[in-house]
């Protein structure tokens, strides 16, 4: 009888041990997420058709994932674009969009929907951000963006990290040049630069080192899956990268700048104030072709430098072995004009400001390396990651899961919405319509060679009417 009781106790203990191990195994099997955000990265990558660009690491990821050739951001500026990525919702058009949301949370007078890292935390994920993921690198406010009392995304991250190295503080890192040089006045800082040195001679080297360190620690924790977001700063202004990356473009023929003239008539054109505010040695790329090429080569060098950082992060992921169970997303926060429409920068509602790369890879996916021309937008990333991780998609998400397109790259997408303070735009597979706040309309046909150089709004009133309804419905405009 005593023996039978001992046997029973033994089997009960064994049952609970096996049950616990199974539960742990289920947690381990939940996929990790690695989100890589690259600032000011237009689709200037070989995998997106820019043959002259050296981007081997991102291209290698593209060969393992699906390339969304027609991904459009929801706003042509860092702050509001990252708001849509991280909340899955359309939001304010200013760079302080996430800080405004944080203030509402602090006041506690109204319900604020959970951000994507907060949502994943509720499903047992460890969430970590490194570098520029939200608008401020490190996710803090204050004069030098390092005030831990002023948090850009409350309740989002278990850790939100920003190594500053010799650049003193996150604000210094954001607009830093080589070896600790910090921007005090834009006019006193060179618009581009290249120096002899290793990757850590520029800020992204330190961000990448920290990301690799965090990856190692997260992968060693077998109890919880991780959501790691890494924000690479380059190719944001000023264009600075080690000389080895600039040398890749020595003697390389650059493609012609398409429709390089300032547009006629009313548009969202602007005078490239951010770019023009830097020290340009009295030169204007709209009037000096050689200088324009210098700018483009330095932008390309920054793309290659950013690509190298992405390569280090992906290599570290593979080294940990966690790559076999990790969803990887590479996302550009908006486009960037390199002379198209005589603009050098973002902030317009033209295609060049809104078109950005998006690559998604997940374990076991088919159609690796495929392209899709389905039109998608940044707000789709939140529900897509939930779908791929097999967790609930929140009802408040404004986007649509892209899982169907990932399974079948020929599946249809949908139209894309973008906005500034004084105008909004809708992109279909054939047209772009931009609606100004006072009712003025731009309409462009992307099936013609003129594309966004010929406003045909007056010729197609019925199409304008149809697109207005779709745009206003999506943004809840009157």
Automatic annotation (TrEMBL):
The family database entries (PANTHER family) matched by this protein are listed as: IDURONATE 2-SULFATASE
Molecular-function annotations in GO:
iduronate-2-sulfatase activity; metal ion binding
- Keywords associated with the record: Calcium, Hydrolase, Metal-binding, Signal
Looking at the record's lineage, which domain of life comes first? Bacteria
Output the Gene Ontology cellular-component terms.
cytoplasm
Which co-factors does it depend on? Ca(2+)
**Protein name as catalogued:** Iduronate 2-sulfatase
Q: Which residues form the Sulfatase N-terminal domain?
A: 31-390
* Stretches assigned to coiled coil: none
Q: Which family, according to the similarity comment?
A: Belongs to the sulfatase family.
């Amino acid at each position: 009888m005593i023996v039978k009781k001992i046997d029973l106790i033994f089997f009960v203990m064994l049952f609970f041990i096996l049950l616990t191990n199974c539960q742990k195994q289920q947690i381990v099997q939940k996929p990790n997420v690695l989100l890589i955000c690259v600032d000011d990265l237009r689709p200037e990558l070989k995998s997106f058709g820019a043959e002259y660009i050296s981007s081997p690491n991102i291209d290698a990821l593209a060969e393992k994932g699906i390339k969304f050739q027609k991904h459009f951001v929801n706003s042509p500026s860092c702050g509001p674009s990252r708001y849509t990525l991280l909340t899955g919702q359309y939001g304010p058009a200013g760079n302080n969009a996430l800080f405004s949301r944080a203030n509402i949370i602090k006041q506690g007078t109204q319900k604020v929907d959970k951000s994507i890292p907060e949502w994943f935390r509720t499903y047992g994920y460890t969430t970590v951000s490194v570098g520029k993921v939200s608008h401020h690198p490190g996710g803090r406010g204050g004069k030098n963006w390092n005030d831990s009392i002023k948090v850009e995304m409350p309740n989002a991250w278990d850790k939100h990290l920003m190594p500053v190295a010799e650049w003193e503080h996150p604000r210094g890192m954001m607009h830093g040049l080589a070896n600790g040089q910090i921007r005090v006045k834009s006019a006193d800082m060179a618009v581009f630069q290249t120096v002899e040195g290793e990757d850590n001679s520029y800020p992204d080297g330190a961000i990448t080192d920290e990301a690799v360190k965090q990856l190692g620690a997260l992968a060693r924790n077998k109890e919880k899956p991780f959501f790691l977001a890494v924000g690479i700063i380059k190719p944001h202004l000023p264009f600075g990268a080690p000389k080895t990356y600039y040398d890749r473009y020595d003697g390389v023929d650059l493609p012609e700048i398409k429709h390089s003239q300032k547009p006629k008539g009313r548009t969202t054109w602007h005078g490239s104030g951010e770019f023009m505010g830097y020290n340009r040695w009295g030169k204007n790329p709209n009037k000096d072709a050689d200088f324009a090429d210098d700018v483009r080569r330095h932008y390309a060098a920054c793309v290659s430098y950013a690509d190298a950082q992405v390569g280090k992060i992906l290599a570290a992921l593979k080294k940990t072995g966690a790559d076999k169970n990790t969803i990887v997303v590479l996302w550009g926060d908006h486009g960037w004009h390199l002379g198209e429409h005589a603009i050098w920068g973002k902030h317009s509602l033209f295609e060049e400001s809104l078109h950005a790369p998006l690559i998604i890879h997940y374990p076991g996916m088919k159609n690796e390396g495929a392209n899709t021309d389905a039109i998608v937008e940044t707000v789709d990333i939140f529900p897509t990651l939930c779908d791929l991780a097999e967790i609930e998609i929140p009802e408040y998400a404004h986007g649509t899961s892209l899982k169907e397109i990932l399974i079948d790259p020929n599946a249809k997408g949908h139209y894309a919405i973008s906005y500034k303070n004084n105008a909004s735009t809708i992109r279909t597979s054939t047209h772009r319509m931009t609606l100004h706040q006072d009712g003025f309309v731009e309409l462009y046909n992307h099936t013609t060679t003129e594309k966004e150089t010929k406003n045909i709004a007056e010729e197609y009133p019925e199409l304008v009417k149809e697109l207005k309804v779709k745009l206003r419905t999506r943004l809840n405009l009157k």
